[in-house]
Amino acid sequence: MWQRLFDDPISWKLVLSAVVPTALLAFAAAWLARALMHRAMRGLLRDTVIPTNSIVRTPLRLVAMTIFGLVFLALIFPAFEILGLHPRAGVHLPTLSTWTFGPGLRIVLITAVAYALIRTVALAVQRFEHDVNFGTGLDALERAKRARTLGGILTSVTTVIVLLIAALTILRELNVDITPAITGAGIVGVALGFGAQSLVKDLIGGFFLILENQIRVGDVVAINGTGGLVEEINLRTTVLRDEEGTVHIFPNGSVTTLANRSMQFSFYVVSLPLAYGENVDSVVDLMKDIAGKMQKEDQYQPFILAPLEVIGVDAFERDALRVKVRIKTAPLKQWFVGREFRRRLNIALRQRGVQMWEPQRTIELSHVAGPGPQKPPAK
User: What does the pLDDT read at residue 347?
Assistant: First the structure.
């Protein structure tokens, strides 16, 4: 059987000398392909699937076996020719050499350029985010949010476009007709234009959300009445996580109402109920004094942007009157400042004996006429 594969008598030492290095080289190529695919799957699946799961292991093994077989079959016959054997079939050394220094070299160059472009964009985005993070003021925080949002979108879009162009170019170098793929992409585009109107609406909505700087990663917003922290902004969806840890995903085309609670600055509003008869001016001075002391402390001074603003007596209610004030703070710091302000205010009011409300009870007494005086019996 082995004699039929060669024109000349074979030497087992020469055969083994060709098979063993070729098998090692094929094994190295299979290991490298498996490692790259494993990394890609980890990036795609993140922590949702463990590496030992069969869903991950089976495709990795299949890829490794396929790469091993292809590389071994492609190199074994040229290896025979290098050692002086003359196989009757397979890929001959001149053919492999011509392909290596022709399409093979161009494929390597295309892969390297694509990788360099993706890494360059990623590094440029990281440098941009680092530069705009310079400083500790409120403007630096706003710039950092916008840079993080735009950087994520730019990296994703660039990666998809570069990989798509590189894949089509490599297929053309392998003499694969890419005309059906391009035609199919055009047909899919037309189908999306007619049948996937909601998808197009989501993409356009996401584009304008990002372009007009309405929302950024890290903002606290309320979308369609649901509040939470913005964890991710894509061209199609926006991801929120509320205070209970629940993740809400909104298609950008379905966003009808958007309230951003962390754009440039925030207010913490306190509506204090006071019992009728309490001295409103004295309580207002007390609140100003508490807010002024907090503004001078190192722990709260960076987050309080202005002195306490007194709005005034806001309402007369049945059991109390409402005094409303507010504190201007840095974005997302209104709750941190406001809770401490309420704690100190409660202690101060108790120490001064100020009542925050006094329930009023109304008791109505009605006179019920009883029976009249009885006449004595007649004797």
Answer: 92
Whole-number Cα distances in Å, 296 to 79, 249, 291, 300: 80, 41, 9, 8
Q: Which residues contact 288 (CB under 8 A, 6 or more apart)?
A: 307, 308, 310
Task: Tell me 262's DSSP state.
Answer: -
- Fold annotation for 266-352: Alpha-Beta Plaits (3.30.70)
Sheet of 247-251, strand order: 247-251, 237-241, 226-233, 220-223, 258-260
Distance CA 248, CA 226 (A): 8
Return the domain boundaries, the chain. 2-91, 177-263, 266-352
The helix/strand/coil state of 297 is coil
Confidence of residue 19 (pLDDT cuts 50, 70, 90): confident
Q: Is residue 166 scored above 70 in pLDDT?
A: yes
| CATH assignment, 177-263 | 2.30.30.60
pTM of the complete model: 0.47
